[in-house]
């Protein structure tokens, strides 16, 4: 059995800055150690005229793929699952995100933004997340706040993992949280 994972989970209300925080942490870690091998992805909002119209998945090396959209209307997309008004392109997400979660010997850190309802429509995603968790490689991820006081079961499983630390992000603690997480992660990356 693997040793407890080095699992850092960032939660907070929508729009509080979880993705921005993760991006700043990655930037800080890379600037202090340019040879750091980081794998993973971010989820980025897509906006038109100030309105959010969807999301895309973005790898750490800048490749993108559609994740969910309100503007998709094809015969194929009519069969896609929905979260609110967004149609989820599971195959597009899997084609880009899943290879980023392959455990490799030289990987120093995994970044996953986010382990949420949209991403969990992929039946292959959470098993890949669990393999990362079991690899004992440091793991930095964002998770949603519980709805009606209840976590998504996969998120609850991550939060309850023996090696997990949950950081609750607010607008008032963003800067301090970056320094705190960077400091703890830096200690795991030696």
Describe this structure in words.
With 190 residues, this protein is of the alpha/beta class. The chain is built from 5 helices and 9 strands, in the order βαβββββαβαβαβα. β3 and β4 (64-69) form a beta hairpin. The longest helix has 15 residues, at 18-32.
Measured on Cα atoms, how large is the radius of gyration? 16 Å
* SSE string: EHEEEEEHEHEHEH
Structural class: alpha/beta
Per DSSP, what share of the residues sits in E-state strands of 2 or more residues?
25-35%
**Major sheet attributes:** 9 strands, mixed
Q: What separation lies between the terminal Cα atoms?
A: 22 Å
Can you count the beta strands?
Answer: 9
Please count the helical segments.
5
Low-confidence stretches: 1-5
Strand order of the largest sheet: 5-6-4-3-2-7-8-1-9
Taken from the alpha-carbon principal axes, the silhouette is globular
Secondary-structure map:
Elements: E1 7-11, H1 18-32, E2 38-48, E3 51-59, E4 64-69, E5 82-83, E6 86-88, H2 90-100, E7 109-112, H3 125-134, E8 139-143, H4 153-159, E9 164-168, H5 174-188
Parallel strand pairs: 1-8, 1-9, 2-7, 7-8
Antiparallel strand pairs: 2-3, 3-4, 4-6, 5-6
Helix pairs in contact: 1-5
Short description:
Helix 1 (18-32) crosses helix 5. This protein has helices at residues 18-32, 90-100, 125-134, 153-159, 174-188; strands at 7-11, 38-48, 51-59, 64-69, 82-83, 86-88, 109-112, 139-143, 164-168. With 190 residues, the chain is α/β, with parallel strands linked by helices.
């Amino acid at each position: 059995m693997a040793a407890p994972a080095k699992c850092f989970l960032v939660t907070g209300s929508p729009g509080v800055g979880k993705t921005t925080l993760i991006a700043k942490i990655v930037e800080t870690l890379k600037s202090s150690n340019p040879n750091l091998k980081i794998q993973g992805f971010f989820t980025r909002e897509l906006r038109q005229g100030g309105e959010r119209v969807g999301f895309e998945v973005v790898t750490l090396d800048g490749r993108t793929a559609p994740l969910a959209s309100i503007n998709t209307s094809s015969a194929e997309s009519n069969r896609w699952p929905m979260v609110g008004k967004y149609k989820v392109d599971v195959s597009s997400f899997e084609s880009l995100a899943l290879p980023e979660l392959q455990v490799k010997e030289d990987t120093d850190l995994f970044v996953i933004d986010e382990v949420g309802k949209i991403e969990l429509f992929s039946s292959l995603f959470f098993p890949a997340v669990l393999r990362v968790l079991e690899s004992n490689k440091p793991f930095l991820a964002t998770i949603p706040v519980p709805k009606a006081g209840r976590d998504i079961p996969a998120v609850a499983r991550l939060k309850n993992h023996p090696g997990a630390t949950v950081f609750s992000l607010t607008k008032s603690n963003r800067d301090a949280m970056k320094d705190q997480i960077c400091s703890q992660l830096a200690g795991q990356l030696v």
